Amino acid sequence: MNMARSSEFLSRLGISHPIIQAPMAGVSTPTMAAAVSNAGALGSLGLGADTVESAARAIEATRALTDRPLHLNVFCHRPAVSDTGIEQAWLTRLASEFARYHATPPVRLREIYTSFLADPGMLGLLLETKPEIVSFHFGLPPRLVIEALRQAGIILVASATNFVEAKIIADAGLDAVIAQGYEAGGHRGMFDPDSRDDRLGTFALTRMLAATLEIPVIAAGGIMDGAGIAAALKLGAAAAQLGTAFVACPESSADTGYRAALAGHAAHHTAMTRAISGRPARCLANKFTALGESVSPAEIPAYPIAYDAGKSLHAAAKARGEYGFGAQWAGQGAPLSRALPARELVEILVRELAETN
């Protein structure tokens, strides 16, 4: 991606700076997205954990705060297949952890999030509200859905963790691909979580895709400052997507324990785990990631059924003052986190980027 093509892509997105605030489900908020967009970058909302009703409220709240471009993200995972035996065994395994906090595990587990693949109401909301950009995580929706969104004038992008996934995205006619490196916080965007993960780093994957694909590449994973953004652009990225960098912003919905962990020793020790949600995700080292080290993937219920147990355990522990079972998603760049208002953080990133040139 040369600079001319990069500028063309940013112009198409309607933003001034090659910075995208990652659409972190459960962490990004309307106030954060609006502040980032108003600063000339791209603000985002993660709708993977939302119902159609809560998503509509979040979109409306964001639109009330900005008339700049808005990026919405949805999850395209395969709907979960329940396995009662695995789920009950998992609850039995977690029972002692619940007991430490004077609580009992749920009697049964539920599929707490609906995949975009099985949610026509969410598609209807996107077609009605017409966000400037929609991105897909965990795969792609059917071609008819892609065409409907494209016909609505929406720019479409999707996450890839390897070349094969990226080629599928490009061949589907999407406008750009997000190169999600293994350093990235939160859920791996793997189309198939049970397939081999080559664990490609952000810069290796970004360079590979920029050198071989005709569509723009957005680098994501471990990027926390202007120097990181500049490096991604040098490797051919059209923009950089930053998530962990925005978690400590006052506009995020991260709780007190999450913020304290991000500012402390745990930031230097992240871990990839399935134990919290059922899919691989990078988290600050905590009690849940430690628990996950002793179990095999086959013992953990499917995503997002496992997340029902994870959220219940976190709520029980948090009620007793223990935050170590939270989904404290963070990338390997976590020690570089800065607790600044989102707009101020964007302005500093822009200044740092300019200083590298």
State the CATH architecture of the largest domain.
Answer: Alpha-Beta Barrel
Strand residues, percent:
5-15%
Residues in helices, as a percent range: 40-55%
The count of domains is 2
Q: What sort of overall outline do the alpha carbons produce when their principal axes are compared?
A: globular
Straight-line distance between termini: 17 Å
Low-pLDDT stretches are none
**Gyration radius, to the nearest Å?**
19 Å
Describe this structure in words.
The chain is an alpha/beta fold and 357 residues long. It folds into two domains: 1-79 and 114-248 and 337-357, Alpha-Beta Barrel (TIM Barrel), CATH 3.20.20; 81-112 and 264-335, no CATH class. The protein is 40% helix and 13% strand. The protein contains 14 helices and eleven strands. It has an eight-stranded parallel sheet. The protein is globular and about 60 Å long. The chain starts with a helix and ends with a helix. The mean pLDDT is 97.
Attribute tags:
single chain, 357 residues, alpha/beta, TIM Barrel, eight-stranded parallel sheet, three-stranded antiparallel sheet, 11 strands, 13% strand
Topology diagram in text:
Blueprint: H1 3-13, E1 19-21, H2 30-38, E2 43-46, H3 52-63, E3 70-75, H4 84-100, H5 120-129, E4 133-137, H6 143-151, E5 155-160, H7 163-171, E6 176-180, E7 186-187, H8 202-212, E8 217-220, H9 226-234, E9 239-242, H10 244-247, H11 256-262, E10 270-273, E11 281-284, H12 287-292, H13 305-319, H14 342-355
Helix pairs in contact: 2-3, 3-5, 4-13, 9-14
